[in-house]
Amino acid sequence: MRRILQVLDAGGSSADFAPQPTLADLDVLIERFRAAGLEVDVGQAGGAAVMDPGMELAVVRIVQEALTNVLKHAGGARAQVSLRFGDEVTIEVSDDGPGRAPRSLEGSSASRGRGLVGMSERVEALGGTLLPKEVQ
């Protein structure tokens, strides 16, 4: 499916054919955000049981998009990622940032993300619900 969509998207690159990330890649993703200057704390409750690859990809991409939003819109923030695994998967990403001018994560496909709309679509495709907190 990605290859078909690639043909339709003239702006795509061969990097789009790389293997999709899994939960095992989450530490590398977090380190990339830290290297970009974002302080990130990660907590996990419950064991990440064997998951459908689509579910794993959704978890990783949602964390990626949420942290990209923090980096772009809450400059100087410290982010907290909380993952809870059980009968359901719960992802909570929060920050204490003041909300400043956007920054980018160089070399990242995350800069092409779709924000809350993309996260909501991923969650709904898996039968879940996205509950964004009010921005103050």
What do these coordinates show?
The chain is an alpha+beta fold and 136 residues long. It has a single domain (22-125), classed as 2-Layer Sandwich (Heat Shock Protein 90), CATH 3.30.565.10. Helices cover 36% and strands 16% of the residues. The protein is built from four helices and three strands, in the order ααβαββα. It has helices at 2-8, 26-35, 53-73, 115-125; strands spanning 39-45, 78-85, 89-95. Helix 2 (26-35) runs parallel beside helix 3 and helix 3 (53-73) runs antiparallel to helix 4 (115-125). The N and C termini lie far apart (39 Å). The model is unreliable at 101-111 (pLDDT under 50).
Topology:
Elements: H1 2-8, H2 26-35, E1 39-45, H3 53-73, E2 78-85, E3 89-95, H4 115-125
Parallel strand pairs: 1-2
Antiparallel strand pairs: 2-3
Helix pairs in contact: 2-3, 3-4
Computed Rg: 15 Å
Annotation, overall tally of beta strands: 3
Strand-residue fraction?
15-25%
Low-confidence sequence ranges: 101-111
What topology, given as strand order, has the largest sheet? 1-2-3
Write the H/E string, N to C.
Answer: HHEHEEH
Distance between the termini: 39 Å
Name of the top-level CATH class: Alpha Beta
Query: What's the rounded overall pLDDT mean?
Result: 79
DSSP helical segment count:
4
CATH 2nd-level architecture: 2-Layer Sandwich
Q: What is the percent of helical residues? A: 25-40%
The main sheet comes to:
3 strands, mixed
